Amino acid sequence: MVLSICLKSKNALISHDFALKFCRYFSAAPPAKTSYGGLKDEDRIFTNLYGKHDYRLKAAMSRGDWYKTKEIILKGPKWIIGEVTTSGLRGRGGAGFPSGMKWGFMLKPFDGRPKYLVVNADEGEPGTCKDREIMRHDPHKLIEGCLIAGVAMGARAAYIYIRGEFYNEACILQEAIHEAYKAGFIGKDCFGTGYNFDIFVYRGAGAYICGEETALIESLEGKQGKPRLKPPFPADIGVFGCPTTVTNVLF
Fold it and tell me: Do 192 and 184 meet the contact criterion of CB atoms below 8 Å apart?
């Protein structure tokens, strides 16, 4: 077929040179595919998504949760954000916005207002249950991530806004948060670093629109969940009128 196009091209509307280039392009052997192999078990971030192991603190720590978290905190916000930026990590909300850049919006001179981290666990899309499985089987991964992200942004508290229908998941998550408080990982003087960070679970009422970040903030404040006009953006005026970053469970 390609050869026929080339031979007939002198009498066609396309040029003979174009036909020859067309032939060379499509007759060339395709480049060899690079095979990276499967992901090794030791490189997996979520190690209990199928619920084969206990989700509680002791078992979670045996799988690597909370490993060297204190050292990461002590490196400071700029180092953490630099690592996130270098990694190329992007948001999973659809736009693929660079996480390092988004977190960096919070590094502003202190103006007297506290900063907050809000985690969007209002998973309302039909057939979507990634966040649900993480909170059900790997809750300490989320709690540890909240602490590290909170330190990076200078936030003093995180609000995990969970879909109202996820009753069991909310209970498991709350239990894991209590364990982290008891162990001294979160709360006052996290890991003995002098940093204070609290985590709260807020259950939604099943409204799909509250998956939008500003509608979620409105609901979190006890108002009707309707999106706000932008600007201002949450990084300037977010929850309770304070600088806020809204991120997904999978940052």
Answer: yes
